[in-house]
Design brief:
globular; alpha/beta; Rossmann fold; two-stranded parallel ribbon; 9 helices
Length: about 240
């Protein structure tokens, strides 16, 4: 069994698509996979949330379980969304216990956070970093490709290191079809910040693919450590060549 936490440098960086890509590759190999969203915000009861997109993209309902522990209608941090709605928050101990139980029944549990690593889940201030630490799970960091990503990535990696959280790598959540100078120059700098090659780069628009095409894209776009065939050296060279 293993647990992987997926966080982002910010909101809207592609965490759900990266989560789906990791799950699709594991489920495609026949592994029993659970995907957990501790708190979904900005979605009304009955509406499709992030886990709906994961199921749609993976296309492996027979080997994929999805679990959402809380849902709040306002697009805010989980702590703020719970406060505004008057709904109860989720507790760190409760979430960690439930994820650990899932890990006993599944080969892989992928936990998708909300926003960035230090977004608060309740008024006491627990964050995804606290959950990863409690679970002793590595964090896969999803970053933007564009200008501004280096500072966000550096700060998040420093926060992880300061809390004793092992990095599972950095993945670019949406690599543009026509990258500009900033995107291309950011590739080696992201690797320098992470002190390791990129763990992947997901092409923009991948979230609109059908399951078969998405699985093929996931395999090309994630590193062998995540079940794919992504070659960071080749990607870096292509990016720098323009």
């Amino acid at each position: 069994m293993s647990i992987l936490v997926v966080s982002g440098t910010d909101t809207g960086v592609g965490k759900t698509v990266v989560t789906a890509a990791v799950a699709a590759l594991a489920a495609g190999r026949g592994a029993s996979v659970a995907v957990v969203k501790p708190a979904q915000t900005g979605v009304l009861p009955g509406e499709p949330g992030d886990l709906h997109d994961v199921v749609r993209l993976t296309g492996h309902p027979e080997t994929l379980a999805t679990v959402e522990y809380a849902r709040y209608p306002d697009p805010l941090s989980p702590a703020a969304a719970a406060r505004v709605s008057g709904l109860p928050t989720v507790s760190l101990d409760g979430v960690a216990e439930r994820i650990s139980a899932l890990a006993d029944r599944h080969r892989l549990v992928v936990v998708e956070g909300a926003g960035g690593l230090l977004v608060r889940f309740d008024e006491d201030g627990w964050t995804l970093a606290d959950l990863a630490h409690a679970l002793r799970a590595p964090v896969l960091l999803v970053a933007r490709a564009a200008l501004g990503t280096l500072n966000h990535t550096a700060l998040t990696l420093e926060a992880m290191a300061g809390r004793g959280i092992a990095p599972a790598g950095v993945v670019i959540g949406s690599w543009p079809d026509k990258p500009g100078l900033a995107e291309r120059c950011n590739v080696p700098d992201l690797e320098m910040l992470a002190a390791r090659p990129l763990a992947g780069a997901i092409p923009e628009g991948s979230g609109a693919l059908d399951p078969a095409a998405f699985a093929a894209t996931a395999a090309r776009s994630l590193a062998p450590s995540l079940g794919g065939t992504f070659d960071p050296a080749r990607f870096r060279a292509a990016a720098l060549d323009g």
